[in-house]
Amino acid sequence: GESVGLHLPTLSVQEGDNSIINCAYSNSASDYFIWYKQESGKGPQFIIDIRSNMDKRQGQRVTVLLNKTVKHLSLQIAATQPGDSAVYFCADGRDAGNMLTFGGGTRLMVKP
Amino acid sequence: DAGITQSPRHKVTETGTPVTLRCHQTENHRYMYWYRQDPGHGLRLIHYSYGVKDTDKGEVSDGYSVSRSKTEDFLLTLESATSSQTSVYFCAISYPLGTSGINEQFFGPGTRLTVL
């Protein structure tokens, strides 16, 4: 992941709409990528992950897309709900070493 | 929180005092991590452990030490706290959740530390 500035990028969406949160990464040798959700005052919560040999992976209401050509990762949330309001950030890692590198995050705000 | 607890959850201390934060897991996972989270920096690794008495430094280890005498506990110590160590500290454990072979990390609830 890449760090971002002091002010988190913010995405504001209407309840019921789909959300797309983006992440750029720099390490072309990463073996996998993970998306986390962090609500205010809580620890990061695992959402979904994807291996570098995949382009797409779907979970419950979430889809992660990986474009290795441009080193870009996105998290799509279908039918966004107020409970989806949080900071989302990506992380990348390698199988050897058990380490993750975290991005700075995007704040998702859901308007009722 | 994947069987991870952190204590204390909040602490206010003065510059120069020692502080120890505790991370406890109930699932006997080998890898444990300490991160700090600050605005503008995201999560940064302080130290990690890959077994009892096996620890190594992360990217921001200066001013911190760790110990792991039991599988379930990973302690983070600030020998002499400074104001720059005011932060939210997260502990994490790592294990494969599914069949993809990825060792995801799972986080505790965090400790908010203020150094005056």
Description of the structure:
- The complex is a heterodimer of chains A (112) and B (116).
- Chain A is 0% helix and 51% strand.
- The radius of gyration of chain A is 13 Å and the shape is globular.
- The N terminus of chain A is likely disordered.
- The model of chain B has no long low-confidence stretch (mean pLDDT 94).
- Chain B contains no helices and 11 strands.
- In chain B, the strands form 2 sheets. In chain B, strands 2, 4, 5, 6, 9, 10 and 11 form a 7-stranded mixed beta sheet that branches. A 4-stranded antiparallel beta sheet of chain B has the order 1-3-8-7, with no helix packed on it.
- In chain B, a hairpin with a 2-residue loop joins strand 7 and strand 8.
- Chain B has 116 residues and is mainly β.
- Classes of the chains: A mainly beta (112), B mainly beta (116).
- Chains A and B meet through strand 4 and strand 8 of A and strand 5 and strand 10 of B.
List the helices and strands and how they pair.
The complex is a heterodimer of chains A (112) and B (116).
Chain A: E1 10-14, E2 19-24, E3 32-38, E4 45-51, E5 56-58, E6 62-67, E7 72-77, E8 86-93, E9 100-102, E10 106-111
Parallel strand pairs in A: 1-10
Antiparallel strand pairs in A: 2-7, 3-4, 3-8, 5-6, 6-7, 8-9, 8-10
Chain B: E1 4-7, E2 10-13, E3 19-25, E4 31-38, E5 42-51, E6 54-57, E7 64-70, E8 73-78, E9 87-96, E10 103-107, E11 111-115
Parallel strand pairs in B: 2-11
Antiparallel strand pairs in B: 1-3, 3-8, 4-5, 4-9, 5-6, 7-8, 9-10, 9-11
